[in-house]
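Dear colleagues,

For the upcoming journal club I promised to circulate an example of a predicted protein-ligand complex. I picked one with zinc ion because it came up in last month's discussion. The inputs are reproduced below in full, followed by the predicted structure.
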Amino acid sequence: MIYALVGAEKSIRNVMGNNNMTETNKDLRPKVGVGVYLVNDNNELLLSFRSSAHAAGFWCAPGGHMEYGETFLEAGARETKEEVGIDVSGVDIVGVISNVYPEENKHYVTIHMKAKKYSGEAKLMEPDKFSDMKWFPLASLPENIFPATKSFLSENPLCLCGSGKKFRECHGK
Ligand SMILES: [Zn+2]
């Protein structure tokens, strides 16, 4: 499993620079995100293009906030169904990543999962939030990929194709 801390130094400086430390610290407490990687038989990864709200302009795997009482699978399956209409019935946790977005005062701990079993046809379910959706070959993922996924891949995890090789030695560059 991959653990990474990104942007922490910057965020600590932000917090230290604020006089109202206690309230600021509480407000800035990290939220838990989930992301689900769907890989098809051609070793392509499903990504949607975010056109509004947080991280507009990035290609993103299905995901979002974990809600009260959910398991990782339940949270990931719900978000995947909501965003791309696919039913996920099993996941492997492939990484846990901490990302700080100082300009938005946001800090997320994201549980990265790969769908072990899924069914259904991918379609764009939330056209108000996403303007496009594509299966990208793992060997040619877009540059403007969602920051949490970029962090995850930069740690050179086991490749999402399931070869057992590291990402960069397998499909990544
Ligand atoms: Zn691979």
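Two points we might discuss: Residues 3-170 form a domain with the Nucleoside Triphosphate Pyrophosphohydrolase fold (CATH 3.90.79.10). The chain has five helices and eight strands.

See you all on Thursday,
B. R.
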